[in-house]
Amino acid sequence: MTTNALPTAIRRSQYAVFGVATVHVAAIVLLLTHRDAMHAGQLALHPGGDIDALTKAALLQSLVPHVIFAVLLPLRALRLTRGRRSGRTVLTAVLTLQIAAHATLPMVTRELPGYGGWIIAVQALSFLFEIAALVYLWSPSARTFFRPGQAPAPAKTSEPALPVA
């Protein structure tokens, strides 16, 4: 991180991304603690199937994206402090992918019967954080921060500068 103060928009964007990552961590905990509900959902969706194997597969398919996003999002948000345009572009792509993932809502509510209202509430909260992060990330002050040639000054070092010959 640099010693310079970040624009408020960048800091708020980071906080919003941290909020999305927190939602993913909560989803991981909820998935692991509600395996029985997922088992019941698989039983309702696939009567007569190998419910234990289906539940294990559904749990794994649900956990993997949450773990990836819970790790990737904060790392990308912290890289914003470097002031590189590519950092903003990559984070925008990740957030856009995250927003597109909300299209899985009908599938998720079928797999966890009885939790539809909670799932919708959690996804709505995540969606608000994602939109807020994108709005702050592309605000005028953020654009100035990421403008070529406007990268933050490097952090001061204790090493002396090399003499120019």
What does the model show?
The longest helix has 28 residues. It contains 7 helices and no strands. The two termini are about 30 Å apart. Helix content is about 70%, strand content about 0%. With about 160 residues, it is mostly helical. About 25% of the residues are buried.
How would you summarize what this structure contains?
The protein is built from seven helices and no strands.
Note the gap between the termini. 31 Å
Using the CA coordinates, give the radius of gyration.
21 Å
Arithmetic mean pLDDT: 84
Q: Work out the strand percent.
A: under 5%
| Fraction of residues in helix | over 70%
What composes the largest sheet?
none
Stretches where pLDDT is under 50 for at least 5 consecutive residues are none
Count of DSSP H/I helices: 7
Coarse morphology: elongated
Structural class: mainly alpha
Order of helices and strands: HHHHHHH
Strand tally is 0
Comma- or semicolon-separated keywords:
165 residues; mainly alpha; 7 helices
What's the SSE blueprint?
Elements: H1 8-33, H2 35-45, H3 51-78, H4 85-100, H5 105-111, H6 116-137, H7 140-145
